Amino acid sequence: MLAIRHASIITADAVIENGLVLVAGGRIQAIGDATSPLPPGTATQDATGLFLSPGLLDLQVNGGFGLDFTADPATIWDVAAQLPRYGVTGFLPTIITSPPETVRQAQAVLRDGPPAGWVGARPLGLHLEGPFLNPAKKGAHNPSFLRRPSDHDVADWSPDTFVRLVTLAPELPSALDVIAMLTKQSVVVSAGHSMASLAESAAGFDAGARYATHLFNAMPALHHREPGLAAAALADPRVTVGLIPDGLHVHPTLVKLVWQLLGRDRLNLVTDAMAAMGMDPGEYLLGDFRVQVDVASARLPDGTLAGCILSLDVILRAFRAFTGASLPDTLATVTSTPARLLGLDHTVGHILPGAPADLVLMTADGEVVETWVAGESLYRRP
Description:
The protein has helices at about 75-80, 100-110, 150-155, 175-185, 200-205, 230-235, 250-260, 310-325, 325-330, 335-340, and strands at about 1-10, 15-25, 25-35, 45, 50-55, 55-60, 65, 65-70, 90-95, 120-125, 125-130, 165-170, 190, 210, 240-245, 265-270, 280-285, 290-295, 300, 360, 370-375, 375-380. The chain is α/β, with parallel strands linked by helices. The chain folds into two domains: about 1-50 and about 350-380, Urease, subunit C, domain 1; about 55-340, Metal-dependent hydrolases (TIM Barrel, Alpha-Beta Barrel), CATH 3.20.20.
């Protein structure tokens, strides 16, 4: 048994000062006061001055460390093994628009599980970003593989077959029927890469879509007479909004406005990380496109943004700088909020007795000190 003592423990409802978390068998056994007596033989770790958070969740990771999931789904385990250094304990490997066989390969990778002896962040299921996207807002997706939504294509997509989130354009023909079908199959549907009007967006949300993929990016700009998807997502209390707050995908002022409007319960921060995360500038893959990466951005030759190169801990620090949000409120956007969206409140995103001991210890500035997955320390800051 391990006792993490004297931390400020971030729970869904409060911050427990000078707290204690007991971990054994890969799960949280108890939460209490640091002065509480400990069972005999308990190992202790002094976390004075630090914050103990649920492990961070990233719902949009295309790859990292030189590897791209769409180009080679088998690399999911290699990237997952390195994500705990950023405090990430759970994530959605994201497969962008590609042939159906690529999706099947990614499903097989998760079905077959990791190699022997592997440890790392948990893949919580796939995020399929495409292929049902509007060609006018394809971004860094190959138009050759875009297609109209069809019941046949999604018939076997469900959490049981490792599909957790699907991004599509709600204005496309048959999209509303597919949204309803996926929702019935317990897949979270997101509106994105879309030219949807306000009415078309609202129809998508009425059909069951409950998320918006990287707000403002790959959708029409927010316009005061033609509000479109961005306004529809912000205005609908049923919808959780994904945002890349790196200061490049969305201006800091708009990041702050979105925070003021949505707060911690409807905003989900993501990286949209691509293969260059954790790497030096150079040329990297995103699907079958070659992307030029400098110290700040990843772009196609025509200048189109092609994912993000920042890790989630850096994203969180940027968000706090733009908004002035507290560390507990910021962390909710990457713990309890995405867990609730995915229907996984009982397994991830919370510090609760009985929950898996997926934890991250951080400084008040949001620097990762140590990360545990299922009670095993997988990263400790040198």
